Amino acid sequence: MREESTTCCIAGGGPAGMMLGFLLARAGVDVIVLEKHADFLRDFRGDTIHPSTLQLMYELGLLDEFLKLPHNKESEVAVRFGDEEITAADFSHLKVKAPYIAFMPQWDFLDFLADHGKAEPHFRLLVNARADGLIEEHGRVTGVNVATPDGPLAIKADLVVAADGRRSDLRAASGLSVEVLGAPMDVLWFRLSRKQGDHNHTFGQIAGGRFFIMLNRGDYWQCAFVIPKGSLESLQAKGLDAFKDGLVALSPALADRVPELTNWDEIKLLSVAVERMQRWWKPGFICIGDAAHTMSPIGGVGVNLAVQDAVAAANLLARPLREKRLADSDLAAVQKRREFPAKMTQMMQIAIQNRIITPLLASQGPIAPPFALRLVQRFPILRRIPARLIGMGVRPEHIGPELRPVQR
Ligand SMILES: Cc1cc2nc3c(=O)[nH]c(=O)nc-3n(C[C@H](O)[C@H](O)[C@H](O)COP(=O)(O)OP(=O)(O)OC[C@H]3O[C@@H](n4cnc5c(N)ncnc54)[C@H](O)[C@@H]3O)c2cc1C
Hints:
Number of helices: 11
Helix content: 25-40%
Bound molecules: flavin-adenine dinucleotide
CATH topology of the largest domain: FAD/NAD(P)-binding domain
Strand content: 25-35%
Mean pLDDT: 92
Number of strands: 21
Distance between the termini: 34 Å
CATH architecture of the largest domain: 3-Layer(bba) Sandwich
């Protein structure tokens, strides 16, 4: 078996893993990031880069370069209930360099981090490399087994980080327990073309048991259609035409392009989950991002939380890793720092699931906007509260003194 060694081996090249890998390498820590796919070009990725992440880019001195990538700016988030449009959040008052959500395909964001990581001598990204087990010695994780096209590889490391998402292989291998909090919905994910004259905004549409979101990805709309969990089979039994009719009933402007959907294979099922670990770490090993606390898509905040976890972990772990004196208390400090924001955010997602999404998916006729949204519509100043929660999150992180670039 081939062997490699590094200081920190990160499984998963998503927002959590790529950000952590880049920050640690920039701070002089030897890092290997493993990504099981060949690239980041997966269709399903959250596309939202929040004001807090843009602020981190600013603190890293990368904001101007980052914003040269194609993106759409949204200073407000609007939801349409039947014919009534409600502005739910207004980011323009946030005291940050870029007070808006940048909608950008996530592969561009990850490529950007990968390119900046690769410019660091301490950074290595291995693609087509699937972490498939932990190496443990005397009660401590000392490395990770990796499946590659060239055969198995063993990577020894002072720290292994599981940033491999909500179906985390390494979390399962660690034996650490996970609490399942449940989600009442799944999402159907498909594309429809964008046409001249279409508006530019990403928006949500709610009516009679249906919840439909359209993300602007340039020449096409990435569509997310929310369904009750486990209901795909009954939807399919009613036929594709009935599904398309439902879409047109929600958004009549789509009538000329729903014929683009010719079979169910073009419509992917994304299963939604809300879970969290009780303990995120054990000696030599820690989980961050969705691996530690799987987020529902509600509020579009999962990418943001994953990035925030990475920054907190880098702030707390860069020096002990660099000085080869990583202790269990350093790992416990990462969980202590990030557990509260993750729990609070999940509590809000679950409250919205129970109070809004579940009744909405069960309703047949028109549905009235919930009281909280009516209030926000009536008193625009209140739109700053959801903007703060969505845009910045609970306890936003900053690039700390330990993460200054190493002198070369
Ligand atoms: C339907 C749906 C829509 C969503 N929409 C949004 C949104 O619009 N905005 C938002 O902020 N959040 C959204 N989320 C949540 C968001 O996707 C996650 O919270 C976020 O991606 C977590 O980032 P991560 O880096 O922890 O994990 P991931 O993004 O899941 O990244 C994990 C990475 O690890 C890789 N990997 C997995 N296993 C291995 C392995 N064994 N070895 C090596 N690599 C591995 C994967 O290929 C992947 O690249 C959505 C979630 C769902 C379910």
